[in-house]
């Protein structure tokens, strides 16, 4: 660490701040657009209003979108955490014959273009005679998100000592007791972060929902259909509200993780 | 004991494997099946022919495939150059600031890519955040860079930056400081250390980062639609219109299949070589 020159260090810090500033610039634009009074947006903004945000919060149409998005995200979170918990045990903990192959198979959906996956699933649902709805969107999200929760929980599973489980078993605990009393509490921080990731990734997902949710529009899908059909102030207002919601949830999740860590 | 572990491993892998078989492997097999069906049929119960591939060549659909691959290659190269210094800082220099960057970048991942790209649209358009303020303060604006291929590459660089940054930082943290110091003591210059010490030792991270960004940007759709304004047709556009307006599933399937095969060829070989246990921090 000490061999990096002072000027290089300062340049790197500056570069880091610059990249972060550029990364957040579009959200700044969306935020300003959401509170601009003019119907046709031009910068600099002359008059501000909270009218659009208020309208977005009370509109019944928006309520339907939020309910659909929530239904999808909550179902995906619960299922992907369960799948990921067992998947992570097979990934990191148990020594079994096809573990190496399994580890690699799990990675494939993450390395796969989502729009193509969404279209492939659309054809598959059609071939099965299933009408796309929010339930098929759940399946599509799971294909991408369950491998991610598996990896997150697996990272946690790598870091604990398997001797703890063996000790419990030697003292006569059954397989399910070991799972419930030893493995589950030890993996809890990983499970919480995996759940957080699952919810937020599903809430914000666009390419998979676009093709697989049928007539049940999620929030990102609806926003997209409005974006390509022309500007209205509703788009930035809803967009920024959704971002604020995600950020709030993330903060709550991080606080929960801190609490867990302190307790251990 | 060992037999029990074997059985438990298999059993706990079962649920997620069932999910992936039913909703990842099977859909891809169906796509492969439709790719060799005659044009415009909606079931797999026909005699296979390869007319879709003839259409792809004769009607020039291969151009959008090449375009997508080219743009993806460009995106990957730019991202590597942009992310290397930052990843280096995160792995070796920053300390606590690394956590700030990680959190800030991960938080952006949770914002829909279409909202972020829409934000760039508002930033870069005529009368947008940049041009509008410049005009108000300096009295002169600039032509909007929207609606062309460079802005699509820009959008993809922006959206896929985390997928290059984190693997690179992970890779660079694998480079032992001693190796770098030893090379410096032996008189190697900055560039020589970069190319002969750091990059080879960080190779696993570089490989994962480049593969991820290439694959994701080759199959990207939102950037071209929201920033390119349909002026540039990328592969996924063609696939989408074949499946929707065109009502030609075999053509859409054949186009997807070509992308899938290229992705598979690129991804399978390196993935089969990586040792995931050490990369993910196994203790034993």
UniProtKB/TrEMBL annotation, chain A:
* Superkingdom in the source lineage: Bacteria
Q: Which residues cross the membrane?
A: 12-35, 72-94, 106-125, 137-158, 178-203, 235-260
Q: What is its main location?
A: membrane
Q: List residues of the ABC transmembrane type-1 domain.
A: 66-253
- Enumerate the UniProt keywords alphabetically: Cell membrane, Membrane, Transmembrane, Transmembrane helix, Transport
Q: Where in the cell is it found?
A: Cell membrane
Which is one Gene Ontology cellular component term of this protein?
plasma membrane
Q: Where is the signal peptide?
A: none
**A Gene Ontology BP annotation from the UniProt entry:** transmembrane transport
Q: How does it sit in the membrane?
A: Multi-pass membrane protein
Q: Which family does it belong to?
A: Belongs to the binding-protein-dependent transport system permease family. CysTW subfamily.
Q: What is this protein called?
A: Inner membrane ABC transporter permease protein YdcV
Gene of this entry: ydcV_2
From TrEMBL, chain B:
| Native source organism of the sequence | Paracoccus haematequi
Gene Ontology process terms (BP): transmembrane transport
From the broadest rank down, the organism's phylogenetic lineage runs: Bacteria, Pseudomonadati, Pseudomonadota, Alphaproteobacteria, Rhodobacterales
Location in the cell: Cell membrane
Q: Which family does it belong to?
A: Belongs to the binding-protein-dependent transport system permease family. CysTW subfamily.
Look up the domain of life of the source: Bacteria
Q: What is this protein called?
A: Spermidine/putrescine transport system permease protein PotB
* InterPro entries per UniProt: MetI-like, MetI-like_sf
Question: Which topology term describes how it sits in the membrane?
Answer: Multi-pass membrane protein
One Pfam family here: BPD_transp_1
Q: Write out the entry's keywords from A to Z.
A: Cell membrane, Membrane, Transmembrane, Transmembrane helix, Transport
Q: Give the stretches traversing the membrane.
A: 12-37, 69-87, 94-112, 147-166, 201-222, 254-274
Boundaries of every ABC transmembrane type-1 domain copy: 65-270
One GO CC term, this protein: plasma membrane
